[in-house]
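Re: your question about DYW domain-containing protein

S., sorry for the slow reply, the queue was backed up all week. Below is exactly what I fed in.
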Amino acid sequence: MATSAQHFAVNPPSTLLGPSNCNFKTPSLQISKNSLIKPIKTRSLKEICREESLEEGFRSLSSSFTGQNPPQFRLDDAYSLVLELCAREKCLKQGQQIHTHIAKSNAVGDRVFLSTKLVFMYGKCGSLLNAEKVFDRMSERSVFAWNAMIGAYVAKGEPFEALELYRVMRVYGVPLDAHTLFCVVKACGKLKNLCNGSEIHALAIKLGLGDHVFIANSLMGMYAKCDALDVAIRLFHRMSGRKNVVLWNSIISAYIASGQFIEALRIFGEMLEAGLSPSTYTFVMVLQACEDMSLGKVGMEIHATILKSNHHRHVYVANSMIVMYTRCGKIGEALRIFYAMDERDSISGSSMLSGFVRNGLYNEALEFCQEMQEAGLKPDQGSVVSLLAASARSGNLMCGMEIHAYALKSGLDTDLQVGNTLIDLYSKCSKTNYMDSVFQKIPKKDFICWITVIAGHAQNNCHLRVLELFREAQLEKEGVDKLMIGSILSACSGLKCISLAKEIHGYILRRQLSDLVLHNTFVDVYGGCGNVHYASRIFKLIEAKSIVSWTSMISCYVNNGFSNEALDLFLSLKETGIDLDSIALMSVLPAVANLSALWKGKEIHGFLIRKGFIPEGSIASSLVDMYASCGILDNSLRVFNCTRDKDLVLWTSMINAYGMHGHGKAAIDLFKQMEDENLVPDHVTFLALLYACSHSGLVDEGRKFYEAMKNEYQLEPWPEHYTCLVDLLGRANHLEEAFQIVERMHTEPTAEIWRALLGACRVHSNKKFGEIAARKLLVLDPESPRNYVLVYNVFAATGRWDDVAEIRMRMKGKQLKKDPACSWIEVGNKVHTFIARDRSHPQSDEIYEKLREIIEILEREGGYVAQTKFVLHDVEEKEKVKMLHGHSERLAIAYALLGTPEDSIVSRVGSALVEISGDILKIHIPEFRVITEPKADGYSNYLLCPIKCCRSICVLEEL
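Result:
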């Protein structure tokens, strides 16, 4: 290096003059000429440096240089003592000033000695670059200089550099001492380099230092870090006659590092039996071993031992007890220790705060922070992280923003951990713009930072932003782990982008990152993208399927309309013997509801009760939905009433259940009860309420609740709300008003909205709005077969057969086919499915014969005449009658009537609930609009009649 040591010391680089831990103005050092020649007495300065602060040491040194009397110490010793004090206090700036004076002085006797002290000081202060420069410029080096430089590398977290310097030292033939081996063994432990560590151990034995307690301690720590605990134990037992507290601490620490907490506590017991008095460090370690919930009682016993030994006054021990009790869930005991402490440091408050957060006491954590500030304790970095975590988990955005402001004022906002926690806070509070702002201001982003921000956007459904950030991370050469892949796949599912999902899948296969969690995730993603075939293939490839695997595949089937397959898969799951959890059971309940498989639903409900699952939260909501879909409204109400803590989802589910069964008034009454409970309705609640009003003909009430949602609750309507409102007005023949609502929408109306309007136009034969709705519908969603079928039916109902033919040709040109109508009924604990004019059932001949008998009875004794106006085909009248006779609903009911008179059947057929008991047929049709003898409100709830009555078949023509 070209620059001389003297020039470097006099003109230290500005980049090395970082902020000091020492908040005092360093007195200028002036060396008198007399100080260069007088011999010295060192006692006074040594005592000052040992007992006083660095400020006092500098003041004493300066006054000796500038005083009238010659200084009473040798200059080399004076510099050495002050440099040691700078190292102890980690005051880099003051150490650099001493370095400058040493370089200027011509009276320094032992340059090697002081250079070694400088290397030691810079290493302790963390200035590795300065230490290297001083070390490199030393013309000769003692073993102490080598040790100081190796120790500096180890302390700074550069173990590889420490080992490299050790090899150079061996090449130069520098004799080794115990401190050399201690530092090198520590470096091997940090690198988990068992091979080199064993070589150093052998060398220590060869040099006669193998039994040195100082080295044995480091060797045991190294073996523990290298997962060779058995070697550490053997080494410990070999030191039978020389076991001191430090050695016992080492083996206890080795057990704890290996996660063997019970063994660590056993060794601690042996230490007490051997009559040794534990040190502060011993208690800190064994308390750390008791941080498991199951070892709380042992922790209390150690607490008693600490009280007897009077170590409880030590701040480190008290802090460890606080952490132990908070991890064991005993927050009250931790608080008692905190308030009983004579002296507290920043770790005390931070440990208490993190304990509150760990135990879910988020509001208490925020209150405790206020108490700390009132007591004059300022939150440190750890406290800020805990407070931000508490704010995030409690959803307290305002408090989180206050802590963010404090972090900005304190300069903690650039801290990586604080930044990551802020990102998590704003993610949980759905403030993605704030989250991005914090992310951009973090100067050096680590991998966790990228994972957190990508996951935050994925959780807030910002799917495109997720992909943008992922590309940025790739450009920054960041790695990819399974958590990040999970967020990317979530974005793929949200965007329904199966091509990107396939790319990620290929990437994972090439990198051999596949595991059970990712396999399950891919089942979810492919299911979310609508590719059930891919999802099923991946599910079959999973060798050791977990309950999550089965649940993911069941949900995939349910969400894509494969309810029968979902139910079959659930039955296969039961045969595997895997323990079912509440999530698996809830995942199959929608399939039960879709199929109206009441007996299966009751079985699952019974299983939930037998397994001790409390019908609360999502379980209760799923049961309410299931029973309502299966037509048993009374059971839905029982589940609702038996649930103690009713959340918003459960109230919404019950409102929806009433609406599903045409009980609009009851749904409104329940909504008012919910408001009395001070629950604030959300978008979904109002959607269920509008649905109930729509299916009960409550036009005025529906308008009122729509306005209340916008004006009173400040909820911007979703497209689904507009769809419900249009359907409500359309059913009541307020088509002009419905059309005006669609026209006044701030956003583009969706296909569902136009579909609702078109359906109403069909019922009320409104050609004007019907043609507008039909044209809009086919433009917005030209690939949906059901849209063409609906337009086809509108034209057919008005006899526009040329337009009907054109619609058929367009469907044929696009290769679109309408899925045939399907009806199912549960008989004998089995679901039977039928489509129009179906002949696939094993008892098909019997079904059609039974249906013929019923039609004959209805025509002969009930005067039944087929209502062929609902057959929208340009065919002969006789052919229309045949078509009506082959409806899937009729086939399902005819099959149910094949049973013995003792059979009792409750099931769904289309949108109707069918109950058969003996010779009584009960049909419940909540959406029925046109009947022979309508009630006052124009709606029929129950039709109760013997089989001979024509109503039972007649109504099914109009579903």
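The first helix runs from residue 5 to 10. Residues 822-924 form one domain.

Happy to talk it through on Thursday.
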